[in-house]
Amino acid sequence: MSTAVKQPNRTNDPSFITRCIATVFFSGYSPVAPGTAGSLVALIPLIIFPGIPIFTLLVMIVIGFSIGVFVSKKYEMVYGDDPRVVVIDEAVGMWITMLFVPITWLNLGAGFLLFRIFDIIKPPPARQFEAIPNGWGIMLDDVAAGIYAGILLFLITMIW
User: Helix axis angle, 136-159 relative to 54-79, nearest 10°?
Assistant: First the structure.
């Protein structure tokens, strides 16, 4: 009787470019909290270009989401549902969170914390979105978390 552990089918491993995108420059391979690492890396373009126009950020979100569905599906085909290393969804969710607020250090920090909270607790319908196959579920639950965090951050900045 064999006790060997079945390994994933490596003949279909995603390409280097697919791995780079899906893992947001390999931040998804962080041994601790890969989603948090991917969210932090997503802040880099916002820090480098703090005056980024809303339209540009919206284009980044649309392109990131579209490519994210594609690369997430590739990972699902090899590694199963929602592999931990795939964090392109966190990047898109972070960008959505920051879409309608000024890019300041305070807003980046608050947006990061709010997004991570909503991504972890996944209020409805975010949790239900996870069940959608072919990369869509991976992306949509973080879109929902980004929308929740973005609305709350916007309201906080309006009141503050």
Answer: 150
Count CB-CB contacts under 10 A for residue 125: 11
- Assess if residue 18 is contained within a domain: no
Extended strands (E) in the chain: none
Paired tokens of 127: 């949790």
* Domain boundaries, position 116: 48-159
Contact 143, 130 (CB under 8 A): no
**Cis peptide bond N-terminal to 8, omega within 30:** no
Mean per-residue pLDDT, 11-36: 92
pLDDT of 83-105, one tens digit each? 999 999 999 999 999 999 999 99
Q: How far is CA 30 from CA 84, 102, 103, in A?
A: 10, 29, 26
Percent of the chain clearing pLDDT 90 (strictly above)? 84
Residue with tokens 């980044």: 60
| Domain total in the chain | 1
* DSSP assignment letter at 10: G
Distance, in Å, from the CA atom of 104 to the CA atom of 108, rounded to the nearest integer, reads: 6
